[in-house]
Backbone:
C-alpha cells in the first residue's frame, strides 16, 4: 500500500491498516478510516472535511464583518468550538481553533457596539414616531372652517401609512412609550375626524339652504316668461339674488343654473325679436343719419367759429327729427357726431381765451412791459457795440432775442 509522505500531505497520513491520522502539535490523532479506498483517496476525504470546517469559519468571519447579530455569532462560535474539539478532518486544525478563538474574543466588543447601535436606533425611532404624532396634532389644531379637507384627509392617511410602515420595519419601541405615542396619534386623528364630519355637516346644511333659495329663484324666473322682454328688469334682480344665494353643491348648482339661465334665455329671445323689428323699422333712419354725418364732418375743416356753430345747430335739429337708428349702430353714429361737436366746442373755447377781457388786459400789460424792456436792451446793445465790449454785446443780444420771442407769443 502507498502511504502519503509528509511533503505530499503535511497535515496527515494514512497507516498501513487504512487509518487516517491528523498531525496536531508534536503528535498525531486518528480521525477515522475510509474503507475500500487508496491512501490518497482516504486522505482527500478527510481533507475535504477540513475544507468544510474552514468554510464555516470563513463564513462566520464574513458575517461578523457585515455586522451579524452578536447573539448569533456567540451561538455559532460555541458550535464551531464543539466541532473543533477533535474534528474528523485533516488540515491545520490549530489555525481554525485560533481563528474561532479570535472570533470569540470579538463577541463582547460586537455585543457592546450593537447594543449602542440598537439604543441609538431606538432613540431615532422614538423621535421619528413622535414627529408623526406632532404632524397629526398640528393638523388637528387647525381652524376646521379654514382648512382644505381633501388635503388634510390625504395628509392624515399618509401619516398613518408611514406609522404602520415604521411599526413593521423599524425598531420595536418600548411598550409604555409606544402606547403613549399611539394614544396621542389616535386622539389627534379622532379630533380631525370630528372636525371633518362637523364641517361637512354644516356644509350640507348650507348647501341645502342655498338649494332651496335657488329653487325658488328658478320658479320665479320661469314665471316671468309670460312678460317677455318686460320681464328682463325683474330677471336681473333675480340674478342679483342668485349671486347672493351661495353655493348649493356643484351637481345641484349646475342643474339649477341651467334651468335659471334657460328662463332668462326666453326673455332675451323675446327682446331679440323686438330689437330685430326695431332694426328693420329704423334702417331708413340710419341711412339718413349717415348722409347727414357726411355733411357734418365737413365742419371739421371749418376754422370759423360762427359759421361752424350755425352749421352744427342745423345738423343737430335735423338729427333729432330723423329719430332712432338700429341698436347696434347707435354708438358708431353718435361717436362721429360727438367728434364734430367737440371741434366746434374747441373753436368756442379758443375764441373765449383770446377775447377774455381779464386775460386780454393781462396780456396787454405784459406786452407793454416787454416792449419797454426791448427798448432798454436795444440802447444797451448799441452802447456795448460802440464801446467794443464783446461780452456785453453778447449778453444784451441774447436778452433782447428772448424778450422779442415772448412778445411774439403774446401777440399770437
Residues:
Amino acid at each position: 500500500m502507498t502511504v502519503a509522505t509528509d511533503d505530499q500531505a503535511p497535515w496527515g497520513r494514512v497507516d498501513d491498516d487504512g487509518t487516517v491520522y491528523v498531525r496536531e502539535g508534536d503528535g498525531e490523532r486518528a480521525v477515522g478510516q475510509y474503507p475500500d479506498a487508496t491512501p490518497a483517496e482516504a486522505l482527500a476525504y478527510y481533507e475535504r472535511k477540513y475544507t468544510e470546517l474552514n468554510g464555516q469559519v470563513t463564513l462566520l468571519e464574513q458575517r461578523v464583518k457585515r455586522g451579524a447579530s452578536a447573539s448569533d455569532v456567540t451561538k455559532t462560535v460555541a458550535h464551531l468550538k464543539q466541532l473543533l474539539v477533535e474534528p474528523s478532518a485533516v488540515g491545520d486544525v490549530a489555525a481554525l481553533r485560533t481563528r474561532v478563538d479570535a472570533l470569540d474574543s470579538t463577541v463582547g466588543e460586537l455585543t457592546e457596539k450593537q447594543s449602542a447601535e440598537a439604543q441609538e436606533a431606538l432613540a431615532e425611532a422614538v423621535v421619528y414616531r413622535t414627529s408623526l404624532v406632532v404632524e397629526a396634532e398640528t393638523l388637528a389644531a387647525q381652524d376646521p372652517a379654514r382648512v382644505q379637507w381633501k388635503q388634510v384627509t390625504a395628509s392624515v392617511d399618509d401619516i398613518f401609512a408611514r406609522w404602520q410602515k415604521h411599526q413593521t420595519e423599524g425598531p420595536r419601541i418600548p411598550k409604555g412609550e409606544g402606547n403613549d405615542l399611539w394614544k396621542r396619534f389616535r386622539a389627534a386623528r379622532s379630533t380631525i375626524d370630528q372636525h371633518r364630519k362637523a364641517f361637512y355637516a354644516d356644509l350640507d346644511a348650507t348647501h341645502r339652504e342655498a338649494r332651496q333659495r335657488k329653487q325658488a329663484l328658478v320658479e320665479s324666473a320661469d314665471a316671468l316668461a309670460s312678460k317677455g322682454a318686460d320681464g328682463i328688469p325683474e330677471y336681473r334682480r333675480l340674478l342679483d339674488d342668485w349671486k347672493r344665494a351661495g353655493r348649493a353643491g356643484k351637481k345641484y348648482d349646475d342643474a339649477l343654473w341651467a334651468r335659471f339661465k334657460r328662463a332668462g334665455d326666453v326673455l332675451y329671445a323675446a327682446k331679440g325679436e323686438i330689437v330685430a323689428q326695431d332694426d328693420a323699422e329704423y334702417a331708413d333712419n340710419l341711412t339718413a343719419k349717415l348722409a347727414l354725418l357726411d355733411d357734418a364732418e365737413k365742419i371739421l375743416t371749418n376754422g370759423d367759429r360762427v359759421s361752424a356753430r350755425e352749421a352744427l345747430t342745423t345738423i343737430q335739429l335735423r338729427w333729432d327729427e330723423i329719430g332712432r337708428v338700429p341698436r347696434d349702430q347707435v354708438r358708431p353714429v353718435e361717436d362721429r357726431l360727438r367728434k364734430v361737436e367737440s371741434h366746434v366746442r374747441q373753436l368756442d373755447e379758443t375764441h373765449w381765451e383770446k377775447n377774455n377781457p381779464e386775460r386780454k388786459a393781462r396780456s396787454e400789460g405784459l406786452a407793454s412791459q416787454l416792449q419797454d424792456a426791448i427798448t432798454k436792451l436795444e440802447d444797451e446793445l448799441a452802447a456795448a457795440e460802440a464801446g467794443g465790449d464783446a461780452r456785453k454785446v453778447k449778453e444784451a443780444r441774447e436778452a433782447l432775442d428772448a424778450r422779442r420771442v415772448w412778445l411774439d407769443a403774446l401777440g399770437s
